[in-house]
Specification:
homodimer; about 290 residues; globular
Chain lengths: ~290, ~290
């Protein structure tokens, strides 16, 4: 895994080699392996750990493990504690959304204040498949099937090319110490069902299922990219901004085919969910409004 | 199901109401239900049945059932027998491919000779999901995830909006007689695994999994349609035919991004599989050829 990882960084993430990196480490096997791979590859990184205080003593043990791991490898470490339940309550969001918002907001702050150029997280190929299946179960479109981005302007996920099995094997062969996330055994029914019932069955379908799935994701990402480019060009043609208000010629809009897909793609960034209302608006009386 | 089916025909397949239809009936529950729904809806149809002679006496019993069903409902019936194994052997194709080629070729012939405007098959929502999962397990692109077409110029599949469970329930409530396809119990490992292990698990993930999946397919079809339109326009711009040879300016081709996806989409109709060769060709010496 180490040499494969180093080749992967060389080919796909060349900018990580000269960057100052912030690595998100929970203390689970994925991020512990990632920290080890980074350290073995002489990358320039610091560790960031969030204690969400959701599992009492267990959360504190995670924090302790990450601090020790950083000390042992002489890596700078940032640790913070959040009152996640309180934040979720006050902002009327789920615990999961609260944790994500708190976490990414704090990472951004550390990066800004200490000049880190990129955040690295330990998402791996099985996470991609999980996300695909969760979105599939709820109903989605192409963007919901393209998985977790390998790279955005500020986040890199070099472990997406590796499977959970590879990660575990590496951790064992290197005798690394990590902590099982206890919440794995009691988090949401859906994610557990996917992880323990569905994914093993899928992997039995084909000897290289996960690799084939990664190819599929690559193809879908390419298609989604072309589609987005197409929609951006169309927007430049159709959306005319005058004094802060966007004007759209309905006659041109109505000629688009398939209309439903185009409406979704053109207006999704505005967070509309009432597609039928927009559809109705096209035939509505002048002055009709949808908010 | 009957009233839902009639509404569905009204909305999505209005041309079936005045068409002369050829209905493919195997004798399994799906096509027996479809024939019953057609007959209850006073549609103008004849039945076509292929005996592939792959399961000896069982195949003959299927043929007999379909003939009786047609007689009972006073429907015209076409029956043929194929030596499927011989065809597969001679044409070096799998039994499955042989059966499909023989079947569609024969349907076309009957339609041409007897002025049927459209062929109707009994594919249902679970078939769509099976196809999606088979392609997913092998690795695919957006077109492999968009399922079986609801409608082409000559084939309609109005049962795609209905689940296997709905079809079975209707068959039982109407006391219809059908034959279990014995090959179901011993056909390919893959399809069985998907049907008996995977799909039930997927349906447990979400109370309306199959409906959500149908929405996903609708969205993907819309995206694939836009993508194809885009590629067709690009081809008109890039592919210049002179004396039966297509010329493509490599400089323009190489500027496309993401290149791999564009190459795949532009050249897939030529049946290339050696994408890396095409990719290399772009940087090759003048006169280099790929076949």
């Amino acid at each position: 895994v180490l040499s494969e990882f180093q080749k992967h960084i060389e080919n796909k993430y060349p900018c990580l080699k000269n960057a100052s990196i912030l690595l998100a480490v929970s203390g689970g096997v994925d991020s512990v392996v990632l920290a080890h791979l980074f350290s073995q590859s002489n990358l320039n990184f610091a560790i960031a750990h969030c204690n969400f205080q959701l599992r009492g003593e267990e959360s504190d043990k995670d924090e302790k493990l990450v601090k020790e791991l950083a000390n042992d490898s002489k890596t700078k470490v940032y640790v913070t504690r959040f009152d996640t339940k309180d934040y979720a309550c006050k902002n009327k969001v789920s615990i999961q959304v609260a944790a994500r918002e708190l976490r990414y907001h704090w990472f951004e702050q550390i990066m800004r204040e200490n000049d880190y150029q990129t955040l690295v997280t330990a998402h791996h190929a099985d996470d991609d498949l999980e996300t695909f299946l969760i979105n599939l179960s709820r109903g989605t479109g192409i963007e919901g099937l393209t998985g977790i981005p390998n790279k955005t302007s500020t986040i890199s996920r070099p472990l997406l090319a590796f499977s959970k099995a590879q990660i575990l094997k590496y951790a064992e062969s290197e005798k690394l110490i990590w902590r099982e996330d206890e919440s794995n055994s009691d988090i949401k029914y859906l994610r557990n069902k996917i992880r323990h019932d569905l994914i093993p069955t899928l992997k039995e379908l084909h000897p290289t299922f996960l690799e084939n799935f990664q190819n599929t994701l690559g193809n879908l990402k390419g298609s989604a990219f072309i589609l987005n480019k197409n929609i951006t060009e169309l927007k430049e043609e159709l959306f005319i901004e005058k004094e802060g208000i966007i004007h759209i010629p309905i006659i041109k809009l109505k000629k688009l085919n398939p209309l439903e897909t185009y409406l979704y793609e053109l207006f999704k960034e505005y967070g509309f969910t009432a597609w039928n209302d927009i559809n109705d608006l096209l035939d509505g009386a002048s002055g009709k409004e949808v908010h």
